[in-house]
Design a protein that fits this description.
The chain has 4 helices and no strands.
């Protein structure tokens, strides 16, 4: 007498990769908007040139644009470091806020 055949394996759980496309899009939209705003503020900080040592308005503009860049980059960085976001989006999303924040901090230190 032959033994009965083994039971079929249990069905596999639904794949989580099916939802990552939609999740990436939902998370990418606010991150891209924050990155673009931070890039615009950083460009503004770099484009402002004081006319001389007496030009306090230009220096104030550099400080304001640099501070806004750092604030927007920090917000984008806080969103990106959340483990569920990092798992869905990947680690390269950490680069834009870090680079923009560093450029703005250097501009603030040497130009403001």
């Amino acid at each position: 007498m032959t033994p009965p055949p083994p039971p079929p394996p249990p069905p596999l759980p639904p794949s989580t990769t099916e939802d990552l496309g939609c999740l990436r899009l939902v998370l990418a939209v606010p991150l891209v908007i924050l990155h673009l705003l931070a890039a615009w503020c950083c460009y503004t900080a770099l484009a402002i040139r004081p006319s001389g040592i007496w030009d306090d308005d230009a220096r104030g503009g550099i400080v304001l644009a640099s501070a806004l860049t750092i604030a927007l980059s920090a917000l984008a960085l806080l969103i990106t470091v959340v483990p569920s976001v990092r798992r869905a989006m990947g680690p390269w999303w950490l680069a834009p806020p870090l680079i923009l924040g560093a450029v703005a901090a250097v501009r603030w230190a040497f130009g403001g």
